[in-house]
Amino acid sequence: MNALTRCCEYLESNHIQYARWIHPPAYSAREVASSAEIPAHSVAKTVIYCGDNGYGMLLVPADSTIDFTEVRRLLGLSEIRLAAEAELAKLFPDSELGAMPPLGNLRSDAGSGGHGLNRIGVHLLQWRHSPGRH
To answer: With contact defined as beta carbons under 8 Å apart, do 47 and 32 qualify?
Structure first.
C-alpha cells in the first residue's frame, strides 16, 4: 500500500475531513497552492530535518521559511540540518521526492525498523506572520 492510500485511509478512519486534488507538476508547496488557487498560508508543507536525536518532521504553512536556529532552540537540540534528498528517498521509499506525507507514523517501514528509523518525531510549528518575515 502506498503512502497516499495509507494517508487517506488514516484520515477517513478517524473521520477527518480533507480535500485531495491532482495538480500539475510543482516544485514547491507555494506552487501547489498557486495551481489550486488556495492561499499559500492555507497549505501545509512537510520539511524533514536531521537532529542529534534522529530525524524529525516539521509541518509549516507553505509560505513560511524555517529558522533552523530557532527550531533547534525550541526542540532543545544541539545540532539540526535539513535532511538530504538521499535521506528522504530512504525515509520515504514509496513517495515521490518532495511529496512526503505529513503523517510520519504512516511510513511503510514505521515500527518495522526499516532503514534503522523506527520513529520520526512530528512537530507542528505555528509561526507568527510579521512584515518581511514568513
So the answer is: no
Element (H, E) at 81: strand 80-82
Domains (range + CATH), the chain: 3-124 (3.90.960.10)
Cell 492561499 sits at which residue? 39
Q: What is the largest CA-CA distance in the chain?
A: 45
Cα-Cα end-to-end distance for the chain = 36
What digits encode the pLDDT tens for the residues 99-118?
777 776 555 554 443 443 33
Burial of 106 (0-12, 13-18, 19+ CB in 10 A): middle
pTM of the model: 0.71
Residue whose C-alpha cell reads 529558522 in the numeric block = 67
